[in-house]
Every structure is written in structure tokens, then in C-alpha cells.
Amino acid sequence: MKSINLILLLLLVQLSSYATSDNHLSGARSSAMANASVASTDLWANYNNQAALARIDKIQAGVFYENRFQLKDLSTKAISLYVPTKLGGFNFNYSQFGSDLYKERKIGFGYSKALSKHFWASVQLNQILVKLNQTYGEQSRFNFEIGLLAEIFQDFFLGFHLFNPSQEKFETMYFDEAIPSIARLGFSWHLSDETLLSSEIQKDFDHDIRLKFGTEHEILDKLFIRLGVSNHPNQISFGLGYQYKSIKMNLAYSKHQNLGYTPSIDLNFSF
Question: Structure pTM?
């Protein structure tokens, strides 16, 4: 039985490493735009680029769920909280990926601040836990991420984010797995009050460069439609968003060239 569990475990780890989105980026709004979100300002900058949180002036909280390739064992659950203060912004996030056979958890605490009228910066400390069921144990590691955001000209923002620059890794008797070190650089351009265009370049230190493009358009008052495309692997995505007073809900659906469809949803509150 133990050997069968080990085989299943190794298969799941291999599939999850191919299927997941590296740093488990969260937020259905960004998912609908191919996660071209390094320069986007919303609550889910908690995962995408914490520097953008410093532009938010209200307390915000939200929940997120993604059913990757419609497989329960590859689902991601996440919560996000941001609290602005006179000293800067403080954020907290928690995400969980996987199943009882293989599970990843990430807890992050961050700080963001406006360094000038058009420039923001952030740092976040993380604890990442990998659990390989009761038989094979678990390990945790600490790492950090940094973010920068600048308004280059009116309504054009340039963002940069670096995850795990210290290149922390997990090492066990059964596998030796590096935590991805990922750099992202991109822009967010409000072409009008209704239309947003975003794009970014992502470089995992161990993989090919990814290009991502996304767009958002407000088709009716507080009703948004979104589209996105990315490569390595090739994916297309789309989604809808709606805001009612202080409540926002976003839906997204993406298609991987080989592995199929991934739905996701988030719900956000402002106080």
C-alpha cells in the first residue's frame, strides 16, 4: 500500500508542477486576463504585486476558488485582506493548493507604501508548507517577494514583481524540488474610463519566458467583460465582473491547449 501511495504521490507532484500557475496567482479578474496583472490595482494584488495595494484607500477582504482543469485535487482556495493606515498598507493572504495526498499552503504578510505621488513599493514575507500525507511528512520554508509600481504617465502604470529571489527549495528523501523564482514586468493602460489593456513578461528562472495579454471593458454600468491570452503553455481566458456598491464578484474561465478548462470565482468586500 505504501508503494502505491508513493507512486500516486509522485504522479500528482509531476502533474501539479505542470498544471499550477507557479506562485498560485489568485483573483478571477486577473485569471480572466491571462494573469497579466503585475501592474493592476485591486485586492488580488495581494498575490500579483503587493505594491499596487498602496493605491487602495479602504479596507478590503475577499475569497477565491479555482478548480484547475476541473480536478478537485488541483484546486486552489485563497483569502485576501488589505488594511491601509497612515504608516502604509498591511496585507495578509492565505492560499491552499492540492489534496490530502499532496498539499501546498502559503501564508503571507506584507507591507506596501507610496514613496512618491507616482511610485509605490512593497515587501512580503511568506511561509510555504508542502504536505506529503501522514506517511511521507511535511516541510516548510520561508521566503519573500518584492514589488514596485510606477505611473509613467497619466493612466499608464508599469509594474515589477520578484518572487523568491533567495531561491529557496524543498528537499526530502523522496524529491528535491525548488520553489520557483519568478520575475514579472508589465504594464496596465487605461485607454479610457471603460477600457483597460494589460500585458506582462514573466520569467521563471528555470523555464521559458511567458508572454501574457489581457483586456477589460465595462460594457454596462459596473458590468465588465474580460479576455486574455498567454503562451508556454498556450492558454486563452475570458470572464465577467460585477460590482454592487461595496461588493464585487468576478468569474473566469480559461482553456489550456492540452489539459482543458479551469473555472474560477472570487468575491470581494470593501469597508
Answer: 0.88
